[in-house]
Amino acid sequence: MSTEAAYRLPLAGRLHPWTLVFGLFAVARQMLIPLLYWVVSGFSVFGTLLVLMFGIPSLLLVVARYWTFRYRVEEGELIVEQGILRHQERHIPLANIQEIRLEQNLIQRQLGIARADIETSTGGGVEASLALLSVHDIARLRRCVFEHRGEGAPDGGTPRSEAPAVAEVPLVRLGWPELLIAGLTSNGIFTLFLILGALLRFAEEWLPEAGRRALLRGIEATVRALGGQSTAMMLATLFLSITFLVLLSVAASGVMAVVRFYDFQLTEQGTALRRTYGLLTRHISSLSPARIQLLAIEQTPLRRLFGWASLRVDVAGVAYERQEEQQGRGVLVPLIRPAAAEALLARFMPGCVMAPGAWRKVSPLAVRRGILRRSVWLVGLTAAALWWWSWPYGLWPLLVGLPVIGLVSWLDYRARAYLPGARYWFVRQGWAGHAVYAVPVNNIQAVVVAQTPFDLRLGLATLILDTAGQTPVIIRDLPVAEACALGQQVARQVEGTSGRQAAGF
Predict the structure, then answer these.
(1) Cα distance between the two ends of the chain
(2) I need a labelling partner for 359 at 20 to 30 A (CA). Which of 353, 373, 438, 483 fits?
(3) Pair 166, 290: CB distance under 8 Å
């Protein structure tokens, strides 16, 4: 069989029969209130009519979706069709597919079925959702998509779909101790707000009015009791309470990381990277390294202290929402040593090597700019202190804050640098939390040189390298001439590697 014929080899399928059962459970969950009323009313005629009026249309929709839903791969496209009265047929070019994510809960895992979400380079979230398919059918679809499109087209006489499955090469595997470290060293304080928000939402939706009033009375009594104490006792109580909440938040962050990334595995299968993780909900996604716009080695202050980092990826056209970020979809590896992360960069992107002694510093004027920028709030605080304590006692914010701002600005200047290369650009930043970005030159879409009022006064500029991903790479505090020269250099490199012109130059 010729290469063209193998590339056009079709693959077709439909939803798994378990889709009907899960659809019925979804309808029952939506019909919970009418069903409860039907039971409480002693199966009255009105309750029966209420259940039938709302339940039958939903059941018909579930059955219609199952019988009419079809998908197939042919002529370089994934085609999804559904509907009876309003027939829809969606054509998705295989070359535009960025990820095929598999998600399954505990029950679906036991049944061998899952939901497959298709994401493309056009962005806007999930382009198509195939729910539910057998895991075997999703694997066939994944192989067909990633191996029958341009970058993985067959190069011999045997169709790829008929060839043996490509073996997976393990790259990273994390057990629960590493995942616990990942959670404990993340910005766990923000987990506290997530927990409080979830508790408030639970109270609003499920607690009766009497329960909410009792809870508010308890909070009010606690505040009054705290206010009746001495100043020292009140401060000690507040300190202990905040410490307890912070420790609770950090512990919850560790547990959430274990649940979210349980049994994390990153493997390489042919031309695709495959991530598998999750305890309650299992996530499996395939990603082509050729679609990666940016790789970031990121360290929180705690991770930097203990020599850990995470590896994050930006994909063209994919914007992860807050809920998706909480599920770890924007994270390639949640915990890794920086040296191991650099080795993975070279594996994913050939020739992507950072030379330690070749980093270029930004302008030393960055220290002065940092002091000016960070002193804005300090001036306001000092003015308020002078109004409250008068001269000279009101100068304490300036005397205490100015040395701190100077030290932070100097540390920030030391941490920031960039490394231009023929095929990749590297940018590092952050003195407490640290990040190193690797950007392939041929992925750069636009080059921008910008100046703020502070920059104009000091003769500095900011160079922005924008890709098709969601995170622009920013190099601040460059001399204007150097920023313009670097922008022209990047534009010439883009033209030389991809044959196109980068916007902006």
Answers:
(1) 47
(2) 373
(3) no
Helices first, then strands: H and E counts in the chain:
18, 21
Q: Are 301 and 188 in contact (CB under 8 A)?
A: no
Tell me which DSSP letter residue 141 carries.
Answer: H
The confidence score (pLDDT) of residue 365 equals 92
Nearest to 195 by CA among 141, 253, 281, 274: 253
Could you give the maximum distance between any two Cα atoms of the chain, in Å? 90
Closest CA to 349 of 418, 435, 428, 421: 421
Residue pLDDT, tens place only, 8-56 = 446 888 888 998 888 888 888 877 777 777 777 777 777 788 778 877 8
Confidence of residue 161 (pLDDT cuts 50, 70, 90): very low
**Residue 122: its pLDDT value, please?**
64
In which band, very low, low, confident or very high, does the pLDDT at 162 lie, cut at 50, 70 and 90?
very low
How high is the pLDDT of residue 351?
Answer: 82
Which tokens belong to 376?
């804005």
Beta carbons of 92 and 80 less than 8 angstroms apart: yes
By three-state DSSP, how is residue 154 classified?
A: coil
**Does residue 423 contact residue 440 with C-beta atoms inside 8 Å?**
yes
Residue 153 has pLDDT above 60, yes or no: no
Q: Give me the count of residues in the chain.
A: 505
Whether pLDDT at 114 is above 50:
yes
Helix (H, G, I), strand (E, B) or coil at 30: helix
Contact by Cβ (8 Å): 31, 54: yes
Cα dist from 372 to 360, 364, 402, 457, whole Å: 23, 14, 10, 11
> d(Cα 240, Cα 425) in Å, to the nearest integer?
47
d(CA 81, CA 88) in angstroms, rounded, equals: 5
Q: Give the angle subtended at the CA of 158 by the CAs of 276 and 269, to the nearest 5°.
A: 15
> If we measure between CA atoms, which residue out of 385, 348, 370, 326 comes closest to residue 458?
370
Task: List beta partners, residue 440.
Answer: 424
